[in-house]
Amino acid sequence: MTPNSRSSRIRVLVAEQAARRGARVGVLDVCTAAVTSLPVGGAGMSAMSRTAASHPLCSTDDISERLEELQLTLGEGPCVDAFTHGAVVLAPDLRTGELQDCWPVFADAALEAGALAVFALPLQIGAISPGVLDLYAQVPVRLGAEELSDALAFADFATLVLLDARIDATGAPPDDDGTTRRIEDLGGYRAEISQATGMLTVQLGVGLDEAFARLRAHAYARGHRLTAVAADVVAHRLRFSPDTEPTRTDEDT
Q1: Beta-carbon-side half-sphere exposure of residue 203 (alpha carbons within 13 Å)
Q2: At what angle do helices 62-74 and 106-113 cross, to 10 degrees?
Q3: CB–CB of 136/67 below 8 Å?
Q4: 40, 42, 98, 105: which could form a disulfide with 61 (CB 3.0–4.6 Å)?
Q5: Would you give per-residue pLDDT tens digits along the chain (253 residues)?
Q6: Under a CB-based contact definition with an 8 Å cutoff, are residues 80 and 70 in contact?
């Protein structure tokens, strides 16, 4: 299959997903189309930056949502490596010793979440890299040459969607089912993480990267979700200090 014909087929598949939702093409449609076309169980996408807090953009199910959050909270995993090195990261079986050594915390957490294989594809156009597309499977699986080419084509199209300001990046489904709520939650996640990180730059007197690292470290140390910690910071229930442990203004449950 030629690159042009592959690209055209991917665009048609994504457009069909958007038509089913009754909305403009968004990254959720790219993720959903990838799941229906590849031997994977789910997909997620995160916006990533070297100068600002990273955040999830969409996920097709609970496991993919958890994987996106885990990698951003832990600071390790295929998604992080794919963005850092600008290269595809393929993890066909997270139980292997090599991958356990590579991501000692993420690998076990991902297995517990229900993923045995994870594939991370950086979103890139030239020097621009706005994020990463993640695919997962609940069984060990290797992508064949054609499947990997399709996955890369989905990532290429996702990059165009993210960079096209005329296209709504998350979409707006017409109904109010669980998928709608997940998209709304992820949109709020992005704003809340950014707001909390900005507040920590003031509280700690540090830059955005260090503020996000402190937010992420607190979430991991307490076993809390990053979104929950961010919500506490924004609501002034949790305050950070340069010299002491973060303090709460309500009962810490």
Answers
A1: 23
A2: 160
A3: yes
A4: 42
A5: 888 899 889 999 999 999 998 988 889 999 999 999 999 999 999 988 877 678 889 999 999 999 999 998 899 999 999 999 999 999 999 999 999 999 999 999 999 999 999 999 999 877 778 899 999 999 999 999 999 999 999 999 998 887 663 333 333 333 434 444 443 444 455 678 788 889 999 999 998 878 888 888 888 788 787 778 889 999 999 999 988 889 888 654 4
A6: no
What letter does residue 168 receive in the DSSP assignment? Answer: -
186 vs 44, 55, 56, 124, CA distance in Å? Answer: 11, 8, 7, 22
Dihedrals φ, ψ of 120, to 5°?
-115, 130
Structural tokens at position 92 = 């066909």
CA 243/CA 14 separation, integer angstroms? 50
Cβ–Cβ < 8 Å for 73, 66: no
Q: What's the sign of the alpha-carbon dihedral 219, 222, 228, 234?
A: negative
Place of tokens 């607190």: 218
Single-letter residue type at 80: V
Query: Residue-wise over 111-142: b if at least 16 C-beta within 10 A, else e?
Result: eebbbbbbbbbbbbeeeebbbbbbbbbeeebe
Choose among 128, 86, 130, 94: nearest CA to 112. Answer: 94
Is the pTM for the entire model greater than 0.85? Answer: no
∠ CA 224-240-195, rounded to 5°: 75
Contact indicator for 225, 192 with CB cutoff of 8 Å: no
Decide: 72 and 219 in contact? Cβ < 8 Å: no
Sign for the pseudo-dihedral over CA of 21, 26, 32, 33: positive
